[in-house]
Amino acid sequence: MYIVIEGQDGTGKSTQAELLKKYYEDQGKEVVMLEEPDGDLPQAHDLHDMILTRGYNFEPLSNVLLFTVARIELWKKIAEPVLKRNGIVISARNYWSTLAYQGYGEGVSRSKIIRLTKELLPEKYFNPDYGFILTVSDAVRLARQKNRGKATETFERKADEFQQKVNSAYPKIAKEFGLTIVDASGTIEEIFDLILAKL
Asked: Fewer CB in a 10 Å sphere around the end CB: N or C, the chain?
């Protein structure tokens, strides 16, 4: 089973992915968690740093290509082997993030992003068994990010106009791909219960 939990920074997707991983591990299942574009691979970690922390200020299309390279590596070397053993892959983000950030946010053609993903990654990656998008208002998102301290990653540091574009993109993406929207303004436990109810 391949499950994706998506959302803007500050929606709690990594927290929910971790809880879900533990939930299935407690049932004795083999589970791996991915956090695109980072992961338990040196090459993916290096790509994460290049895009998000070193301040290189890549062109938007370059960001799309670099994220895609990280996805290919993580999928082929980590996710695919687990799925072949009937395990569970839980990913905090997939290419829907690129649609939100580089498509709606940075202006790259969304059809180009989808076409590139379809050409370079297998059908299973493109169509998870379950897809969740966590949403919160801009006010809640800003308050959570403030509590986390100073933004350190490239896209978190972008102006409010960019953040609002990304935040408003996720409901559109959910509608386009038939994904489950989860109101992430509640407690961690409440959000987790909503996800479990769907699963």
From this structure: C
